[in-house]
Amino acid sequence: MKSNKINNGIFWILIILVFIPSCAVNPVTGKKQLMLMSEAQEVALGAQYDPTVISTFGEYKSDELLAFMRKEGDEMGKISHRPNLQYHFKILDTPVVNAFAVPGGYIYFTRGILAQFNNEAELIGVLGHEMGHITARHSASQQSKQQLGQVLLIGGMIASKEFAQFAGYAMQGMELLFLKFSRDNEREADQLGVEYSSKIRYDAQKMADFFNVLNKMSMASEHNGVPTFLSTHPDPGDRYNSVKQQALEWQQSLNYTNWIVNGDSYLRMIDGLVYGDDPRQGFVEANMFYHPDMKFKYPIPAGWQLQNSPMQVQMAPKDGSAMIVFMMARQKTLEEAAQKNLTDLKLDVLDSKRTTVNGFPAIAAISQQVSQNQQTGAQQVIKVMSYLIQDNNSIFIFHGVSEDANFNNYYRVFESTMSNFSRLTDPAKLNVKPKRIKIVQVPATGTLSQTFKTLKVPDSQMKELALLNNIELTDQVAKGKLIKIIGE
User: Fold this and answer.
1) Which residues pair with 386 in a beta bridge?
2) What residues does 271 pair with on adjacent strands?
């Protein structure tokens, strides 16, 4: 058609205009590189992104840890390749073992990765690594590439690709965190992490030790839908030996008298840190999902799998033929939330009504989405049951999704979960407590295994705790040494 030629012309004009400001000098290499944003735009992007990250994951409160990260991070920033950039350091309330760098100087550590460190030098080495991604503009470059082709993280639980947009709907603001760096980027960030941490007198060889721990952990690529460190920061090859060698070279060139490790002081800082999944953020027991902090519950369909991420809860049968997504809306009224969500998902409403769910005001709707399979040309129809439920200032959303042919089979399943959303009042569920890191002294010299037995650590936990301490069960530990165990 005639309009296609016009649209194609406009497209290429836009591409040319986008690339005009693309020549930028990399602060680390001094070479020109493709860059679709200025430093001011980069800083603005980080400032815009930060509230979304915090509201999505939650910020973990530890004044001592945060003060330490800010103090050392600010010192490191001043000797980095971008000393005039203001750096921001945050702790995210998630058990996922990862750290992120966002354009504009924003660096995030999860409580999951902080639990794995055993000394200040490991933390500072990884902090330097993340700062390296910022100073070398790796994350800004990723964002530039993303502007030409949006990347959307999709949870792997749902088998049918037609449901992908629903599974990833609440993740759309998080793409930049989860973009996978190239091995070249990782290699450069490792080098910069060694340089920056060494220049502020930390023993960068400990960063290599920590990367070795990550390899030993054999982590899955994601935890509850959120990628782990090695999936977003791939091993560039022989990382352990490379980092060790680079650290040694910097130590020889700088020739400081002492290199900081500070194991005991770090362990004291993480004493009481929440460890693993926090049941306060939601847990399943006997086919019921409980959320103690928000004081609600709802049933899970029998035999369905559940994935509880910071962004949303996904439930699906093993064959992936249907799914239920549960999330919160940001709008203030049910009508606004219904309009926003149904529009964003490009749904045509077939039926909608005002109702109540166990005393809560609600809107229930049946919608559909009609699309065309690009490979076969066949028409595809997906049906969706949606419940929007208001509890004071909070609005909760359920979407039950299946192909049209299966919708009637899942209708009652969807409705049973959504219509049984209710207030949580059981004190036993409301008062559940998370596990925490406990720092204790070794009572007597012996092997780590003997120490754990003395401290009444269950046999089933010993391997995990040995890795958490980065000590073999057969290694000798001296009386008085500080180690981690898990308690409440």
Assistant:
1) 365, 399
2) none
Residue with tokens 């290699």: 187
pTM over 0.85: no
DSSP states of 425-469 as a string?
Answer: --HHHHT---EEEEEEE-SSSEEHHHHHHHTT--HHHHHHHHHHH
Burial 111-143 (b: 16+ CB within 10 A, else e): bbbbbbbbbbbbbbbbbbbbbbbbbbbbbbbbb
Are the CB atoms for 294 and 303 separated by under 8 Å? no
Q: What is the total residue count of the chain?
A: 488
Measured CA to CA, the distance from residue 34 to residue 100 in angstroms comes to: 22
d(CA 274, CA 270): 9
Amino acid at 137: R
**DSSP classification of residue 455:** T
**Domain 279-430's class?**
alpha beta
Contact 77, 67 (CB under 8 A): no
Q: What is the edge-to-edge ordering of all strands in the sheet holding 435-441? A: 274-275, 435-441, 482-487
pLDDT confidence of residue 371: 77
Residue type, 165: Q
Check if the beta carbon of residue 246 is closer than 8 Å to that of residue 194. Answer: yes
- Tokens for 335? 């009508």
Domain ranges of the chain: 2-275, 279-430, 442-487
Look up residue 68 and give its DSSP letter: H
**Number of H-type helices and E-type strands within the chain:** 18, 23
In tens, the pLDDT along 159-182 reads 445 566 666 554 445 555 666 788
